[in-house]
Every structure is written in C-alpha cells, then in structure tokens.
C-alpha cells in the first residue's frame, strides 16, 4: 500500500471517528397515555318536601295520586298506555290500596281536630303538585314506566314498590324546582351629564342683550348721528366709539346752532350708550368750525 493510499485511509478513519463523536444521542421518550374523558354524572335532585318523610301508607297513597294525575293529564299513545296500566293497577292492587287509604285516614284522625279538612287540603295540594305543566312530559314518561313495572307485582309487594318508584315520579318536579345558577350582569352605566357653565352663558348673553337694546339712531343738537347696525353675533371685545373731527369745514351755522353744538364733548362719551364693534369705523360727524374759534 502506497503512502498516498495510507493517508487517504487514515483521513477517512479520522472523519468517521469525528462524526461518531459529534453525533447526538437519541433518547427514547415514553408518551404518557391520554387522560380519560370525564364521565358525565347525573345527580338526581333530592325528593321534594311534599313526598319526603312519609309513612308506608302515605307513600303508597302518594304513588297512587301521582299515577291518577298521569292517567288524567297525559295525552296521545303514551296517555292511552297510562290509562290502561292505571286501571290494571287498581284492579290487581285493590285490597292493598284500600288498606293504605284507611291507614292514612287513621293517622289524620289521630291528630285530633277537624282531621277531614286537613286531609282534604293535603290531597288537594298533592294533586296540584303532580299537575304542574312544566314537568308534564318527563312525568308522563316516568308514570308509563312505573305502570309497566307494576303489572308484575304480587299481592304484598305494593308497599315496597311504592317506596322504590315514588322518587322517580317526583324527580321531574324536583328538577323543575331546583335552583339554577344565575350570572349577574352589570348594568351599563351612563356618562354623567356635563354641569352647566354659568359663567359662559352670562358672558354670551350680556353682549347680545346690550346689542339688542342699542337704539337705531342718536340725535345730537338737531344733527342725526346714525348708529352702527347690531351684529348677528356678540363681539368678544367692545371698544368705545371716538368722534372724528371733519377734515373739510362745512358751511357756517347759525349762532343758535353754534351755542347748542357746544355740547360736543357729550358725544365722546357715547360709548356708554351705544358700543361699536372692533374693526368698525366710527360715524362721520359734521362739526361747525366756528365753535372751535372761541
């Protein structure tokens, strides 16, 4: 083997070793199993107070009242099935139902007083309870299932059966009457109305009132001095009018007029009565020069 071949083999070996040295180690990562999906659990509400804590006789009679209401209120094919099943129950369990009714009346009689009125009131409330329309559909379904199971009952099994099925007949009403969580939403708050600025109203009303009250013309010693017309909008700054002396003298006036016109300084104070807006020229006043030659 020549030296060139040996050098090539050595270079290849060094490159292979370098590649092995820089190669990243692969580590196996165990993927955890997916979490099981939560199983929905339906919690039956507690039985309503009207069907809670009953004696065995009252339990049987409450079941009979519920099935009686279902036979009267349920409609359609399901209603026909309930009516047929209720008639079968009355026939097959006639003796057990009569025993339960007698025992329940004896319990009311033992309380003394007018027990018959209390008994009738309690039965009226019970019939009204099972007649609530919002729970009608699930109640009819429960009653149909109950009467189907009741067809297989023996002579002495009605009391145990009533204790088992009464919570099922009561469940639609307990679900309807159970409190629901309510999320309160904050009422939208309206922005407060801006307070009126009294100063601004007074500042705008005062100049407008002054301009409205200004006379249309002012007479001075027989000479008519026309006032500047009122502006549509009140000016922000008002300066007094200044009487301007005429550049060209007018014709001489009579002495009586000259004596009267001597009161010209009063015209200079006209600003108190009729203000003129800024930028408006003052009215031209014709003055007799003879008055100023005194």
From TrEMBL:
Entry-linked PROSITE patterns: PROKAR_LIPOPROTEIN (PS51257)
Swiss-Prot/TrEMBL keywords: Signal
Signal peptide: 1-21
Protein name: DUF4142 domain-containing protein
Organism: Sphingomonas olei
């Amino acid at each position: 083997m020549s030296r060139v071949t040996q050098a090539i083999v050595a270079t290849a070996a060094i490159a292979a070793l370098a590649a092995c040295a820089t190669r990243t180690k692969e580590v196996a990562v165990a993927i955890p199993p997916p979490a099981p999906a939560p199983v929905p659990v339906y919690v039956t509400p507690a039985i309503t107070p009207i069907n809670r804590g009953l004696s065995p006789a009252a339990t049987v009679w409450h079941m009979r009242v519920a099935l009686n209401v279902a036979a009267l209120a349920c409609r359609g094919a399901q209603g026909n099935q309930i009516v047929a099943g209720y008639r079968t129950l009355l026939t097959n369990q006639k003796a057990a139902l009569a025993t339960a009714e007698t025992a329940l009346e004896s319990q009311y009689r033992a309380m003394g007083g007018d027990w018959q009125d209390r008994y009738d009131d309690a039965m009226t409330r019970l019939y009204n309870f099972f007649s609530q329309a919002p729970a009608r559909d699930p109640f009819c379904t429960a009653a149909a299932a109950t009467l189907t199971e009741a067809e297989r009952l023996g002579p002495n099994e009605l009391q145990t059966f009533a204790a088992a099925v009464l919570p099922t007949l009561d469940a639609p009403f307990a679900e309807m009457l159970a409190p629901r969580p309510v999320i309160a939403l904050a009422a939208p708050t309206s922005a407060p109305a801006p307070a009126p600025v009294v100063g601004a109203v007074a500042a705008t009303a005062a100049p407008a009132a002054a301009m409205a009250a200004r006379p249309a013309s002012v007479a001075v010693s027989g000479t008519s001095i026309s006032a500047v017309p009122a502006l549509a909008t009140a000016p922000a700054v008002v300066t007094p009018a200044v009487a301007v002396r005429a550049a060209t003298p007018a014709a001489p006036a009579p002495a009586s007029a000259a004596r009267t016109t001597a009161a010209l300084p009063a015209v200079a104070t006209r600003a108190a009565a009729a203000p003129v807006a800024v930028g408006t020229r003052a009215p031209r006043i014709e003055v007799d020069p003879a008055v100023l030659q005194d």
